[in-house]
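Exercise 7.
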Amino acid sequence: MPEVLGEDGTVEDVRGELERGLESPGADPPLSALL
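Solution. The predicted structure, written as tokens, is:
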């Protein structure tokens, strides 16, 4: 699913975005659901 990948399309970027999303109060449910 390309839309889920980070700007560089790397797994590391995706993990980083997910971690920042979980730490933020306004995390996107779709991203959190991927975990």
